[in-house]
Design a protein that fits this description.
Elements (H helix, E strand, L loop, with lengths): L3 E6 L8 E3 L13 E10 L5 E9 L3 E5 L8 E4 L4 E4 L3 E10 L5 E10 L5 E9 L6 E9 L3 E5 L10 E4 L3 E5 L4 E10 L6 E9 L20 E5 L8 E4 L7 E7 L2 E9 L2 E5 L11 E7 L5 E8 L12 E7 L7 E6 H6 L8 E9 L4 E11 L7 E5 L9 E3 L2 E7 L11 E7 L8 E5 L11 E7 L6 E7 L6 E7 L6 E7 L10 E6 L9 E10 L7 E4 L9 E3 L6 E4 L11 E7 L8 E5 L11 E7 L6 E7 L6 E7 L6 E7 L10 E6 L8 E11 L1
Antiparallel strand pairs: 1-3, 2-9, 3-4, 4-7, 5-6, 5-8, 8-9, 10-11, 11-14, 12-13, 12-15, 15-16, 17-27, 18-21, 19-20, 20-27, 21-26, 22-25, 22-27, 23-24, 23-26, 28-38, 29-32, 30-31, 31-38, 32-37, 33-36, 33-38, 34-35, 34-37, 39-49, 40-43, 41-42, 42-49, 43-48, 44-47, 44-49, 45-46, 45-48
Length: about 675
């Protein structure tokens, strides 16, 4: 009986994708098929009989062009195949995938048919440096189409994996140790070529990098047990005679971390006094393990001597399933402990951890602290131009004065506003300033809100602060997003150096010579956005979400922050590469675990890094079936550095939004530029 070996050729020798008849308002329409690929099944009998099975996302039919000139094409339904006999040679097989709307995507991939046994087989096998017990295998050979990997494990069906010749595969072993592995290279010939070796599979028993840097929460809102970011509460290990666990302090990547071995019942106990966490909302800790399947944390509140339950003592334990081999950040609501039976958090003195399997687990723990969302004052008015007008100083050919609001609508219906006229031919830096009597309170407030009106969309509005002698200054640029209407621009001054800022300078259409245009501004206000604390819903520091990419770009991935500076010094970020030639609408999305809370919040803040200034970054939200969507465009204002973009979704129709879609350099075909984004936060 003939043996048929299946080979998946994932866009080898890709010659391009063509998508036709696309409505560029695709955001509300069906997109063309994606991930088009052909599976080859070549009979290993020197006959050259090849069975071709096309697959794609979003396709309902295919055309297969064999590439040998004998037949124009074959129509193939989804899930079906077509057989064709080839002579020895190399062929370019073309697959056209169609969806129900008639949109088409085509790919061309190479097929090699040879009746020679594979030659010059070269195999590389390595232990993965980041994944425990994973081996990475690559095989190359002449006259071969694919190869099989036999792991050498007893009781495991073999081969355990296959790949195209020249491509890599990865395989995770159940246990470390020495294995007799085998790699078999195959083509269309009956004969095969093999490689055998004894290989030692290793496991990773300790993290190679330190735990994520803790979020810089307000110190007043944190009670630390041990953390690199906060003042530690004095703690000690707590081992009882019935606990076989051992404890040690270790240094990982320069940071102190606590390690527990043979964990079955262990804990941390305050030495000096108990911790009052009654005003806290969460307990945070970072956990890394190579082998446990369940991690449990128990909090114990003692009112006196004895076990919990005496003298009003109370305790509760929660269990979690950690991802093995990577740091997992847990922010556990104390309300979860309350739901488990804990009634008081004012005298917490023991923090007990245990795991499954009992007595065999290794666990590293770092950054343990209680925290709560900071209580913020909502805002503080700086100038609304309704009383005595300030003394303006203009420069560069601009003029400023207080006038009656010419457009009492939208976000600004007040009576008076400031008008800045950028005279015809005035300097690119023309603007104006006024001074206030008391320094701005940037210790309490980190942002400044300004309502602006501009006849130009995309104009740079620069806001600059100066101390009395202008020896210390800080400025932030934002772009107008509408024309001939009021909008609120919120400037982030959290990066401003400490100073007594008393001078407020504003520039409209900065970088462009004046043309006589008139601009208006009003309601300059110190803000923390709202009395409701921002809600971070994705920072890529824990388990990465599942990304879906479209428009012929590479897959989005979570990587180490390549530029820990400015407004973003977190450890991990999402990387999106807009592949050369990809669609103008190429992008990606992930889904949230729960619907975004637009009853409490109206905006989404995203930290972005772009190699291009002025690139459109579109943020789109969708409900589960994409029947309700809303999108907002903003432009990058800097290049090669982090900035915060704040998207206003106050006009979004009511819906349970669970899908977050992002597009970089929207409207422009891809050119292999790399973009990063991070810290998606609900805010006001």
């Amino acid at each position: 009986m003939k043996k048929i070996y299946y080979i998946i050729l994932g866009l080898l020798f890709f010659t391009g994708c063509i998508e036709e008849d696309r409505d560029l308002s695709f955001v509300d329409s069906i997109v063309a098929p994606s991930n088009v690929v052909a599976t080859y099944a070549i009979t290993q009998d020197n006959t050259g009989l090849v069975t071709i099975t096309p697959t794609a996302d979003g396709a309902n039919s295919f055309k297969v062009y064999f590439g040998d000139g004998t037949t124009d094409f074959a129509d193939v339904e989804v899930g079906q195949s077509v057989a064709h006999t080839y002579a020895e040679g190399t062929y370019n097989v073309k697959i056209e995938a169609f969806n129900v709307g008639g949109l088409k995507t085509e790919v061309t991939q190479e097929l090699v048919v040879s009746f020679k046994a594979p030659e010059n087989l070269m195999v590389t096998i390595e232990n993965n440096s980041g994944v425990s017990k994973q081996v990475d295998v690559t095989a190359t050979a002449d006259y071969a189409t694919m190869y099989e990997f036999y792991s050498g494990e007893s009781g495991v069906s073999q081969p355990v994996a296959t790949a195209n010749i020249g491509e890599s595969l990865s395989y995770v072993y159940q246990n470390p140790g020495d294995y007799d592995i085998r790699v078999v290279a195959k083509g269309a010939a009956i004969a095969t070529t093999e490689y055998t070796a004894t290989f030692t599979v290793t496991e990773i028993l300790a993290p190679t990098t330190a735990a994520p840097i803790p979020i810089n929460r307000e110190v007043a809102d944190v009670v630390s047990l041990f953390s690199e970011a906060y003042t530690d509460v004095t703690v000690d290990t707590w081992n009882t005679v019935w606990s076989a666990a051992s404890f040690e302090d270790v240094m990982i990547d320069g940071n102190a971390t606590k390690k527990y071995t043979a964990l079955n019942f262990n804990g941390i106990e305050t030495v000096s006094s108990s911790v009052d966490a009654s005003g806290m909302e969460f307990i945070h800790l970072d956990v890394w393990t190579p082998n446990i399947t369940a991690f449990r944390l128990k909090l114990v509140d003692f009112k006196g001597d004895g076990f919990a339950g005496a003298n009003g003592d109370t305790e509760a334990e929660l269990s979690f399933t950690p991802t093995q081999g990577e740091w997992v950040s847990l922010d556990i609501p104390l309300s979860d402990f309350s739901a488990a039976g804990m009634t008081d958090f004012s005298d917490i003195s023991q923090y007990i951890i245990s795991s499954d399997p009992s007595g065999a687990g290794i666990v590293f723990i770092d950054n343990v602290y209680f925290w709560k969302n900071p209580t913020n004052t909502t805002s503080q008015s700086v100038e609304d131009f309704e009383g005595t007008a300030p003394a303006f100083t203009s420069f560069g050919g601009a003029g400023v004065e207080v006038v009656t609001n010419p457009d009492m609508s939208g976000v600004n219906t007040t009576a008076n506003v400031a008008r800045l006229t950028k005279g015809n031919g005035s300097e690119v830096w023309a603007g104006g300033f006024f001074e206030i009597t008391s320094p701005l309170d940037l210790a309490t407030f980190s942002k400044i809100s300004v309502k602006t009106w501009s006849p130009k969309q995309g104009a740079v509005v620069k806001l600059k602060l100066e101390n009395q002698d202008a020896s210390i200054t800080h400025e932030v640029d934002l772009n107008t997003t509408v024309s001939n209407a009021w909008e609120e621009l919120i400037y982030d001054f959290s990066g401003a150096p400490t100073a007594d800022y008393v001078r407020i300078v504003i520039f409209f259409d900065f970088g462009v010579n004046g043309d006589g245009s008139e601009y208006y501004y009003d309601a300059i206000t110190l803000v923390n956005d709202s009395g409701v604390s921002p809600l971070l819903f994705q920072d890529f520091e824990g388990t990465a979400p599942t990304f879906t990419s479209f428009g012929n770009i590479a897959g989005v991935e979570v990587i180490t922050n390549p530029d820990m500076s400015g407004v973003n010094t977190t450890s991990n970020v999402a990387k999106l590469t807009k592949t050369n030639g990809s669609e103008v609408w190429a992008g990606a999305f992930f889904e949230t675990g729960a619907a975004l809370d637009f009853a409490t919040y109206s905006k989404i803040s995203v930290k972005t890094w772009s190699p291009k200034q002025g690139a459109v970054v579109k943020l789109k939200l969708e409900n589960q079936d994409a029947s309700i969507t809303h999108e907002v465009d903003l432009n990058t204002t800097v290049s090669n550095s982090w900035e915060e973009l704040i998207y206003d979704f106050s006009d979004a129709p009511a819906a349970d939004y669970v899908r977050v879609v992002i597009f970089f350099d929207f409207g422009v075909n891809g050119d292999d530029s790399v973009y990063y984004y991070d810290e998606l936060t609900l805010t006001n």
